C-alpha cells in the first residue's frame, strides 16, 4: 500500500517540477552546453579586448573623412603601443552576457513569438541595453586621446557605462538589428542560393561547406549594411554638437554626416556618386566584424574539442577500471 504522505509529495513534485516536454510537444528552448558557455564567458571578452584597436580606428574614422584606413589604424597607436587599447577594458565585462546570452535569448524569443524578425528586434534591443554604455565610454576615451595626441583641446564628457542608453541609442539598436539579421534571417536564403548555384553548375557542395559559406556571406552582407549605422553611432557619441542638439538637430546632424562623408556633389549641388570614404568605412567594418567572429568561432571550437577530449579520456579510464 502506498504511503499517503509519499503520494502527496509525489503529486507536489510533479506539479512544481513538471517533466521536460517531449518531442511531440514541440521543441523547447535549447540552451548552450557548458563548453559554449565557457567559450562565451572567456572568449567573448578576450576577442572584444584584443581587437580594441580596430574598433577604436572605426571611432576615429567617424570624425575623419580624409585619412586612409591605414592612417587611422596608425593613429590609434600614436601615444604608444598600449594606446591602441584605450578604453578597451570598458566593454570587457558586458561582453560576457553579450556573448553567452544573446544566442539562447534569440531562440527563446523566436520560439515564444513564432517569428525570427520579432526575435531579432528584441534581441537587438537587449544587446543594446547590455553593451551601449560601455561601448560609448570606449569610443569617447579613444576619441579624447586622439584629440590630445593631435594637440587639440576638444574633449567630450565620458558617459557612465552603467546607464543602459545614451546618445545614438536608436542608431545603435538599428545597427544591431541589421547585424543580427545576417546570420539569423538571411543565412538560410543564402544557403538556398548556394544550393541552387551548385546544382546549376553540377557541383557537389558538402553540407558543412554550404552552411559555412551561407553564414559567411550573410554575415559579410550584414556587416556592410550595418557599417553606416555603426559610423553614425560613433559620430553621435563623439560629437558634442550632436549631444547638445534637440531631436530635430540630431536628425539634421546625422543627415549632414551621411551626406558629407558618403556622397559626392558637383558644382551645382547634385549628387554624382559615392565617396571613397564609404568604401573605406565598409572595409574597416568588415575587417573588424570578420576578424572578431572568426577568432571567437575558433575559440568555441577549441573549447568544444577540449571538452570532448576530456570526456573521451574519462570514458577510457572508466572502461579500463572495469
Automatic annotation (TrEMBL):
Source organism superkingdom: Eukaryota
Annotated protein name in UniProt: ADP,ATP carrier protein
Lineage: Eukaryota, Sar, Alveolata, Dinophyceae, Gonyaulacales
Amino acid at each position: 500500500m502506498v504511503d499517503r504522505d509519499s503520494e502527496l509529495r509525489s503529486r507536489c513534485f510533479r506539479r512544481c517540477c513538471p517533466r521536460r516536454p517531449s518531442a511531440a510537444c514541440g521543441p523547447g528552448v535549447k540552451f548552450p552546453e557548458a563548453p559554449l558557455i565557457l567559450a562565451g564567458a572567456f572568449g567573448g571578452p578576450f576577442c572584444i579586448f584584443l581587437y580594441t584597436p580596430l574598433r577604436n580606428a572605426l571611432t576615429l574614422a567617424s570624425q575623419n573623412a580624409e585619412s586612409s584606413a591605414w592612417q587611422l589604424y596608425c593613429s590609434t597607436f600614436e601615444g604608444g603601443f598600449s594606446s591602441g587599447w584605450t578604453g578597451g577594458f570598458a566593454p570587457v565585462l558586458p561582453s560576457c552576457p553579450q556573448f553567452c546570452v544573446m544566442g539562447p535569448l534569440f531562440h527563446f524569443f523566436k520560439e515564444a513569438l513564432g517569428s525570427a524578425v520579432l526575435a531579432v528586434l528584441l534581441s537587438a534591443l537587449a544587446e543594446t541595453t547590455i553593451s551601449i554604455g560601455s561601448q560609448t565610454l570606449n569610443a569617447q576615451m579613444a576619441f579624447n586621446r586622439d584629440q590630445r595626441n593631435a594637440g587639440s583641446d576638444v574633449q567630450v564628457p565620458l558617459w557612465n557605462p552603467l546607464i543602459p542608453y545614451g546618445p545614438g541609442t536608436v542608431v545603435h539598436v538599428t545597427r544591431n538589428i541589421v547585424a543580427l539579421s545576417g546570420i539569423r534571417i538571411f543565412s538560410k536564403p543564402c544557403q538556398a542560393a548556394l544550393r541552387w548555384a551548385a546544382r546549376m553548375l553540377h557541383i557537389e557542395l558538402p553540407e558543412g561547406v554550404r552552411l559555412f559559406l551561407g553564414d559567411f556571406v550573410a554575415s559579410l552582407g550584414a556587416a556592410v549594411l550595418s557599417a553606416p549605422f555603426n559610423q553614425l553611432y560613433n559620430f553621435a557619441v563623439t560629437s558634442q554638437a550632436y549631444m547638445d542638439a534637440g531631436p530635430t538637430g540630431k536628425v539634421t546632424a546625422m543627415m549632414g554626416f551621411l551626406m558629407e562623408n558618403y556622397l559626392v556633389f558637383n558644382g551645382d549641388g547634385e549628387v554624382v556618386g559615392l565617396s571613397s570614404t564609404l568604401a573605406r568605412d565598409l572595409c574597416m567594418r568588415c575587417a573588424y566584424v570578420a576578424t572578431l567572429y572568426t577568432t571567437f568561432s575558433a575559440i568555441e571550437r577549441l573549447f568544444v574539442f577540449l571538452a570532448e577530449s576530456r570526456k573521451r579520456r574519462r570514458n577510457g579510464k572508466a572502461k579500463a577500471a572495469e
